[in-house]
Automatic annotation (TrEMBL):
Protein name: Carrier domain-containing protein
Entry-linked InterPro entries: ACP-like_sf
Organism: Nostoc piscinale CENA21
Species classification: Bacteria, Bacillati, Cyanobacteriota, Cyanophyceae, Nostocales
């Protein structure tokens, strides 16, 4: 597994690539050129429910393929969207959430 800083960078690259794919399929309008500040569910971002599910599944698959780590982000979607700090607000918050899941298996329950 990459070092902590490298891990976050790798996760962010995966998240951005997956968002680009979902956006290209027409399921969302997320301005990835804003990088970490790009809104996913926060104001200015748009992704429909199918796009959000597709995004999370694609992220799970890409993390497993690139890092050999299995996450279950889709199972946690209700808890994610109801939390006080929404990990799905921006690319940065989602990157931090996933990195935390990888570093602390109990957060996402599925490593």
């Amino acid at each position: 597994m990459p070092e902590r800083a490298d891990l976050r960078e790798t996760v962010q690259e995966i998240v951005l690539a997956c968002i680009e794919e979902v956006t290209a399929q027409g399921w969302g309008r997320i301005q990835i050129e804003q990088g970490e500040a790009a809104n996913i569910l926060a104001g200015g971002g748009f992704i429909d429910s199918l796009g959000l599910t597709s995004l999370l599944v694609t992220i799970e698959q890409d993390i497993e393929a690139e890092l050999g780590i299995t996450l279950n982000l889709t199972r946690k979607i209700t808890e994610i969207t109801l939390s006080s700090t929404n990990p799905l607000a921006t690319v940065g918050t989602l990157t931090d959430y996933i990195t935390n899941c990888i570093n602390n298996a109990t957060v996402c329950g599925g490593i």
